[in-house]
Amino acid sequence: MKRQNLRTAALILCIFSYLLVGAAVFDALESEAESGRKRLLEQKRGELRRKYRFSADDYRELERLVLQAEPHRAGRQWKFAGSFYFAITVITTIGYGHAAPGTDAGKVFCMFYAILGIPLTLVMFQSLGERMNTVVRLLLKKIKKCLGMRTTHVSMENMVLVGFLSCMGTLCIGAAAFSYFEGWTFFHAYYYCFITLTTIGFGDFVALQKNEALQKKPPYVAFSFMYILVGLTVIGAFLNLVVLRFLTMNSEDERRDAEERASLRRARNNIHLKPKEESPASAAAVPSFCTCLCYRPQVCGSPAPSHPETLSCHTNPVYYNSISYKIDEVSLSTRGQTGSSPGSTLSSSSPRCRQHPRLRRKSI
Amino acid sequence: MKRQNLRTAALILCIFSYLLVGAAVFDALESEAESGRKRLLEQKRGELRRKYRFSADDYRELERLVLQAEPHRAGRQWKFAGSFYFAITVITTIGYGHAAPGTDAGKVFCMFYAILGIPLTLVMFQSLGERMNTVVRLLLKKIKKCLGMRTTHVSMENMVLVGFLSCMGTLCIGAAAFSYFEGWTFFHAYYYCFITLTTIGFGDFVALQKNEALQKKPPYVAFSFMYILVGLTVIGAFLNLVVLRFLTMNSEDERRDAEERASLRRARNNIHLKPKEESPASAAAVPSFCTCLCYRPQVCGSPAPSHPETLSCHTNPVYYNSISYKIDEVSLSTRGQTGSSPGSTLSSSSPRCRQHPRLRRKSI
């Protein structure tokens, strides 16, 4: 079975299993508490109904009123500040739902607003996140230099650690701030920040909904907006570092397959293969055979560079150091001097690629 | 200013402007209606309070009860079916909030569940989406062949059109189904599908919340789950086709810059440049100079292939046809025969790259 199909099938199976496990655990954790809360609420409601002797219709009307009035209790949701807050929740896909368009025109505009805004925002966060990673990488290098360390090379592990600590730091700062301003416990504020910055946005905890903060506390409003946007950038930077490469795995494999087919066709039509010199496997900095095949064939014939990050990789200048790429050192340098046209570099390596299927990138 | 920094700054400016415009429009569309609704609700609440003569405390208690009882009205939310539904909303980041963990243990598990589940789900949807695009591409090719068209080549525009129609079709099918099962208007059901499949998930409209559907209508529950997962795949396929390439723009430019610096260093240290033959610019199928520099230097010296998609591009086998890559035809074939080591292909082209800065990829 083709690699891409196998990978996709495995991922689907993973997700379904993950959902099943999650459902079972949430059931175990929440189901009993839900029953308890329901019993208590029914008991209290019964007491109030007996005290005031509501008619069934009036009680239903009261329920409807309370539910509809709920957003209004938090103050004006659709003045400029509230609308800006709402617009943020749309284009970042957080979507708390604390406010949602009540008019049909608002719903239509919301949909068009999201169609353009969401991709634009995705690209912006990834772009800014990548810049952030570059700055962090340079800083780490300078720090290592100042500390007089043996090597100033910034590894993937260094970057992942700093990224992870940044995410935790961002969550903790937010938790401290919102627990102070909103009167939540630190844990609930942390949970709110987590649910917000992962863009899940349940809406069970929503900032700026107490004491008409949207209209009366502009500095707090500005802080909340900046926190969400900066926090999403930090998360975006971490995702750019760790996850983005996996999003293009299938496409890369398709491209490599297509290039192999093309080069085989060219080899059959045009190229006469010449014997190549064999030389020992190069150092760990040399990327996988198939990465080399696609991205840096000329490297394979040249000495390993002293600064690996200058051979920046697929999606990230230190990509080749990532865990998914620390695989077999490959006798890439066996390609050595190819002599004739550059085209032969690709085509002449293809039979070797066929002979060594186990040298293809180990991926998910 | 460096290209990546300029691009990032432009994107940030774009987003802030977009938010300001959105806020102004939502304010204009919703603010007045909000005032109207608030007045009406206060009036009706006043009538009920006068009729039953609630004390202030009792009324607040009643409000609290109604709000807390609201999820329970929709049936058991945390039995297995409800928990599975909730788990879907977590890992897809839809996050309706119709149900949210009530216990602290549930909140903690929810966070860990999301940390692993969200990236896994992202990768799965992109992987499956890419497979879907590949199948569609093959089908389109077969259809063109059957129709006896002059060329069976599937362009990016074809793919984008089919992708867009698939998204619209998915939304319409969902709208028809949910308007039937939930008793919503077609427009509201369409709005619900849109808000769900963009993972915004306000929670103003949530399926499976009427008539205890989660427990009593297993086929409808299964349909809803499958609709969400398949719908997200279709959206994911469209994003994979259109947006994914833009997520790695900065990283690619960084890598190219690093490779240029590395090749210049090598050129200064090792390589003697030889004069190159000039030949006319090749056809539109040849990608940008800088893409070629990084991915397929050997192509530059070889004749343009008859089937461009075999030279599959960065993230997608027909990438090079994308709008962002239809740029200047470049005299890439001027690199021609390089003779010596493959390394010279890269280094010898760098001075030309310097001479033609306007030939760099036009990107956002």
Describe the structure.
Chains A, B: Its main location: membrane. The first copy, chain A, has 364 residues and is mainly α. The first copy, chain A, contains twelve helices and no strands. The longest helix of chain A is centred in the N-terminal third of the chain and has 50 residues, at 3-52. The radius of gyration of chain A is 28 Å and the shape is extended. At the A-B interface, helix 1, helix 2, helix 3, helix 4 and helix 6 of A face helix 1, helix 2, helix 3, helix 4 and helix 6 of B.
Write the layout of secondary structure elements.
Two copies of one chain form a homodimer.
Chain A: H1 3-52, H2 56-73, H3 80-91, H4 104-146, H5 156-182, H6 186-197, H7 213-216, H8 218-242, H9 249-269, H10 289-295, H11 297-300, H12 343-355
Helix pairs in contact in A: 1-9, 4-5, 4-8, 5-6, 5-8, 9-12
Major sheet description of chain A? none
If you compute it from the alpha carbons, what radius of gyration of chain A comes out, rounded to the nearest whole angstrom?
28 Å
Please report the two chains with the greatest interface, counting residues with C-beta closer than 8 angstroms to the partner's C-beta: A-B, 154 and 155 residues
E-strand count of chain A: 0
Tell me the quaternary state. homodimer
* Measured distance between first and last alpha carbons of chain A: 15 Å
- How would you classify the helix and strand content of chain A by structural class? mainly alpha
Q: Could you name the ranges of chain A where pLDDT drops below 50 across 5 or more consecutive residues?
A: 276-364
Q: How large is the share of residues in beta strands of chain A?
A: under 5%
Shape of chain A: extended
Write down the secondary-structure element order of chain A: HHHHHHHHHHHH
Binned, the helix content of chain A reads 55-70%
Task: Report the mean per-residue pLDDT of chain A as an integer.
Answer: 76
Number of helices of chain A: 12
